[in-house]
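Handoff note, outgoing to incoming analyst
You'll be picking up this chain. Sequence as last confirmed:
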Amino acid sequence: MRTQIPVPLMYPVLYAVVLAAGLYSQSVGLGDVALLPFVGALAALAVVDGVEWRRFPAGAPFPLAVGLLLLRAVLYVVVCISEPTGIARVLLLLLPFRAHLLFGRVAAVAIGALLLAATVVTSQVTTPGWMTSAEKINDLVMFIVGLVLTLAIAAVAAEERAGRERLRLAAAAAERVRVGREIHDGLGHHLTAISVLLAKASAFRTIDAHVADEAISDAQEASRLALTDVRRSVRTLSESEPFDLADAVRALGRGLPVHVDITGEAAGYDDGRRLAIYRSAQEAVTNALRHASATSIDVQLALGASDAVVTVHDDGTGFEPSRTGRGLTGLRHRIEGMGGSLLIESGPDVGTTVAVTVPRASA
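Most recent structure output, in case you need it:
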């Protein structure tokens, strides 16, 4: 598929100017204009532009794009032949302009060279000795200047369109990273919790049926929360689905060896920062359960007037802080992007402490 050219104002303006000039020439006797082909070809050009724009909003297929360019070339020639003053030749400059946007610089330069050669040959055939006429030379120079300006404008337009496409692709890539990170952070935690809870249920099945049943119930609740988290990640937070930070953090300890302590209020923190605070606690708890074999995890959330501090400490095996995984690396990028910070202390005898600070508002 070819990239569609937005219909700029210059197309209908040029058609209108050429039409007005032709009618004026006819009315004052500057030349006999063949009105039927002249007006008919201009109307056909306007129809072709409109139909192409509506029928192929994403761009016509390559063969059709070539065919439409050739059709326009024929119509331009008809207009030029029907109007004897020569002002209609300005429409020919649209050919390299369109070619540059559709097929690139090489095609535009080639068409421009063909137009220039055709102009010289036509002048030689219709007006012998034209090279000694100041008027004809001036017309040729003006045509060359117009051709150069047209190619320059087309190059700028093509670069601007390419820039917009790069921005679109970058935005799409950033959105894929965001959704992937949200799914990794949220779904990863819930799957870890489900795994731990099912292991607990299996271990207590013959020892204490009540504890096993509670573990299975908590695993079912974790699976429900996982589904809710995935839906939230896909469609992002909105006012119709408010995010309760305190409830979400407290839910991290449901059925797990996690103690949660929350002070302060989340009012004043936007949804993006609330979600970042929650993901910080969630990622630290998930790592403690999945990798550190922790038996006790403390989560402290202090929501202050200027910033929020999340501290997660576990009694697990610890690790080398310089060798963080994808989850903590993505979390660090997110927090630092908000002007916050992430600190990690870990060792084989002291477990792991993750401290995250998120400012209430951007600096």
